Amino acid sequence: MRKGRFADPGAGAPRAMDEALRLLSYRQYSTSELQKKLRSRGCAEEEISGAVRRLTELGYLDDEALARGLALSRIRQRRWGRIKVACLLKRRGIASEVADRVIDEIDATEELNAAREVLERWLRRNDPGGTFSRDVAMRAMRHLRSRGFSSSTVSSVINRPDDPCCYDE
Fold first, then answer.
1. Cα three-residue angle 33-91-46, rounded to 5 degrees
2. d(C-alpha 148, C-alpha 127), whole Å
3. How confident is the model over 103-129, as pLDDT tens digits?
4. Within 10 Å of residue 149's Cβ, how many Cβ atoms?
5. What pLDDT is recorded for position 14?
6. Which of 10, 50, 119, 123 has the fewest other C-beta atoms within 10 Å?
7. If we measure between CA atoms, which residue out of 73, 112, 107 comes closest to residue 89?
8. 117, 77 in Cβ contact below 8 A?
9. How far apart are CA 51 and CA 7, in angstroms?
10. pLDDT at residue 163 tops 80
11. Same-domain check for residues 67 and 99
12. 55, 20 Cβ separation under 8 angstroms
């Protein structure tokens, strides 16, 4: 039983729907995350499944909308690549078919622009002289890969067709 200002002294285990609504008032949860939270709070399985079903009907619980929102915000604001976004969706308990569908909807141009911005910012900090030697290029590639960009995106950003670079030996 929970203690604190939300506790009901006459109740045993918290009711799943009330607890779910309280949790959803703070942030969005995936169906899987919400079920885990409700189980950890001592809610009965029947109550959990009923609450999840009703919240889904009402539109308060929508894994696809959550996945789409997370993917777009991570790419646009945090400048992540598709791979890192896919890992986040998996960690958040989004079904793989939903995650794959959302990842496929991501515009390749948008991801490419995000990778370019990440590279430009990284180069300002790590290559102030603008030499872009082979060593700098390799470090930049590792940085972009760590941000979740695919090898093809990284190579197209590093070897820009509009701005071919020559490596200093």
1. 20
2. 21
3. 999 999 999 999 999 999 999 999 888
4. 27
5. 62
6. 10
7. 73
8. no
9. 19
10. no
11. yes
12. yes
Q: Give every CB contact of residue 169 below 8 A, 6+ residues apart in sequence.
A: 133, 134
In a domain, 4, yes or no: no
CA distance 149 to 140: 12
Residues 113 and 142 in one domain: yes
Q: What is the pLDDT of residues 54-112, one digit of tens each?
A: 999 999 999 999 999 999 999 999 999 999 999 999 999 999 999 999 999 999 999 99
Tokens, residue 137: 């290029």
Distance CA 76, CA 72 (A): 6
Give residue 87's domain range: 63-105
- Which long-range CB contacts under 8 A does 82-86 form with residues at least 24 apart? 82/106, 82/111, 82/148, 82/149, 82/150, 83/148, 83/149, 83/150, 84/147, 84/148, 85/148, 86/148
DSSP sequence for 95-108: -HHHHHHHHHHS-H
- pLDDT tens across 136-147, in order? 999 999 999 999
127: three-class secondary structure by DSSP: coil
Report how many domains make up the chain: 3
Asked if 116 and 156 count as a contact pair (C-beta separation under 8 A), the reply is no
How far, in Å, CA of 111 to CA of 81, rounded? Answer: 6
